[in-house]
Amino acid sequence: MISGMAYIAPTRPRQVADLPARIVVRAMNARHLSSLPSRAVIREVGLRDGLQSVQTIVPTEHKREWIRAAYEAGQREIEIGSFVPARLLPQLADTAELLDFAGTLPGLFCSVLVPNLRGAELALDHGADLMLVPLSASHAHSLANLRKTPDEVVAEVARMRAARDAAGARTLIEGGVGTAFGCTIQGHVDAAEVLRLMQALLDAGADRVSLADTVGYADPAQVASLFERAVAIAGDRLWCGHFHDTRGLGLANVYAAMQAGVSRFDACLGGIGGCPHAPGASGNVASEDLAYMLGSMGIDTGLDIGALLRLRGRVAGWLAGETLHGTLWRAGLPKTFPGVDAGHDAGLDVPSHCGAATSSTFHA
Ligand SMILES: [Zn+2]
Question: Where are the strands (E) in the chain, listed by range?
C-alpha cells in the first residue's frame, strides 16, 4: 500500500495477460467545459457500503476475488470494509483479513470505515491507508445510527488523530459528513451546520473531509451550492463526494460536484446497497455507469469498463436474490465510445447490439 499523502490519481493498471481486449478510458475527447477535471478517481465502496446493506454474506474468498479483479480493472482506491463489531454487521466480519490481503496489491490505496477509537486502532494495526470516520450532520440520525451527537464524533476524531500520531502511522483520517443534504429521520439538515461540522473535523485533526448524500435527497443545484462552499473552506482537503442514487439523481449530482472542483467519488459496482429507511432504494451510483459517464466526457479514470462489467456479472452471481442497479450492463457500450471498434465488440462480454445480450455472464 502507499502512504497516500501525495496520491492524486490512479496509475495505469498493470497488464493482465488473460484479460480480453481492453477498453481503458483515457482523456480522448476534448472537454468542452474547462471547469471539469481531466482525471477523476472512482473509489469502489461496494465491499463496504454495498455489502453492509444486503442480506447475503459474501464469503471471504469471493471478496478477495472481487478486490483482485477490481484492481486488475484499474481500480486503485477500494474501501475494504468496516471495523465494527461482527454482531452488528456480520457481512463485514472479515475486514481485517481482507485488509491484509489488499495490502499485498502494489499501489492499491485501501480505506476502511471506523466508527470509534477501537476501530481506528484496528485500522492502524492492519495498515489501512485511510480510515473514514462517519459523522451525521443530522443530530437525530447521529443519535440513532452512532449513538453519539455530531460533536461527540468530532471529539472521537481528535482521539483517533492522537492515536495515529502516537503510533507514527501514515494512515489518513477522513471525516465523512453524512446526511449532508437531508435525513429520513430529521428531514431538513441545515447547510450551515454541515459546514460547521466539516470545519470542526478539520480542526480536530482530520486530514480529509467529504460530503455524503446518505439517503439520496440531494439534487444538482443543492450539490453545486454546498460543494462550492465546502471547497472554499477545505480546499484540496475536500476529498470525496458520496451520492446515493435513491431517486435517480446520482450521476447528475456527481456532475454538479465536479463542476465545484471535486474529482473523487464513491461508487458501488452494480449500484448495490440501499437504505433501511427507504425500501427499494439503490445504493451508491454504479461504478461502471460512473466510469462510462466520465469516459464519455473524456475524463480519465484509468478503468477498464469491460473488465468492470465482467466483474459485475460475477458479483451478481454471488448476490443471487439481491437487487442490483445500474444501466450500462444492460445496454453495453455504444459504438461511438472511445476505443470501441464499430466493426466488432472489442472482445467484451457485454450486450453490444440493440441491447441484446451476447453473453450469459449477467445474472442481475
Ligand atoms: Zn453511503
Answer: 41-44, 77-82, 109-113, 130-136, 172-178, 208-213, 238-243, 264-267
What is the gyration radius of the CA atoms in the chain, in angstroms? 19
Q: What is the distance between the alpha carbons of residues 238 and 255, in angstroms, rounded to a whole number?
A: 16
Tell the CATH topology of 39-331: TIM Barrel (3.20.20)
Q: What DSSP letter does each residue of 27-68 carry, written as one string?
A: S-SPPS-TTS-SB-EEEE-IIIIIGGGSS----HHHHHHHHH
Helix (H, G, I), strand (E, B) or coil at 156: helix
**How many whole angstroms separate alpha carbon 172 and alpha carbon 152?**
20
Cite the active site residues: 275
Distance in Å, CA 91 to ligand 1 centroid: 16
Does this model's pTM top 0.70?
yes
Q: How far, in Å, from the CA of 244 to the mean position of ligand 1?
A: 6
pLDDT, block means (10 residues), the chain with 364 residues = 38 36 44 78 97 95 98 98 94 98 98 98 98 97 93 98 98 97 94 98 98 96 98 97 96 97 97 74 92 97 97 97 94 90 48 31 27
Question: What is the whole-number distance in angstroms between the Cα of residue 183 and the centre of ligand 1?
Answer: 13
CA 235 to centroid of ligand 1, rounded, Å: 23
